[in-house]
Write a structure and sequence with these properties.
By secondary structure, this protein is an alpha+beta fold. Helix content is 25%, strand content 42%. It contains three helices and five strands, in the order ββαβααββ. The longest helix is centred in the C-terminal third of the chain and has 15 residues, at 83-97. The two termini are 25 Å apart.
Length: 130
């Protein structure tokens, strides 16, 4: 689900562009069997930036959520032991590509982790503030 919100705080407009509930089947995990069998992951990405344009209808004045999806998709293709490493790579890519972004949040949920019990998901979250 895509959310674009505008907020006004003390005369400044902040814009939030998000991807929510993006699903991937990938091969991340500390244990070798996790990297062989794979599992489902759900990712949320939020970005916030200050709005300086006067409602100009240009993609260059915002964060392109299609590009956000492509960044996440590419990073999910590379198996890693730790979800923190995946989230960090996603965050860094966004941070370097969108210099106007003031806040980034990456949440990765690993569905039904192999913990020997009924667990809906495990999760890690990284945030960045410029």
């Amino acid at each position: 689900m895509l959310k674009i919100l505008y907020f006004c705080f003390m005369g400044m407009i902040r814009q939030k562009v998000s991807l929510e509930g993006v699903r991937f089947f990938a091969y991340h995990g500390f244990y070798p069997e996790e990297q062989i069998l794979g599992t489902e992951f759900i990712i949320d990405v939020d970005t916030e930036l200050e709005v300086y344009s006067a409602g100009e209808d240009e993609i260059s004045n915002t964060v392109n959520y299609e590009r956000l999806f492509n960044i996440v998709s590419e990073e999910m293709k590379t198996p890693r032991k730790l979800l923190e490493t995946v989230a960090h790579a996603i965050l860094e890519q966004i941070r370097h590509e969108y210099l106007a972004v003031k806040h980034i949040r990456v949440l990765i949920r690993k569905m039904h982790p192999p913990l020997g019990g009924d667990v809906k998901n495990s999760a890690i979250e990284l945030t960045y503030n410029r």
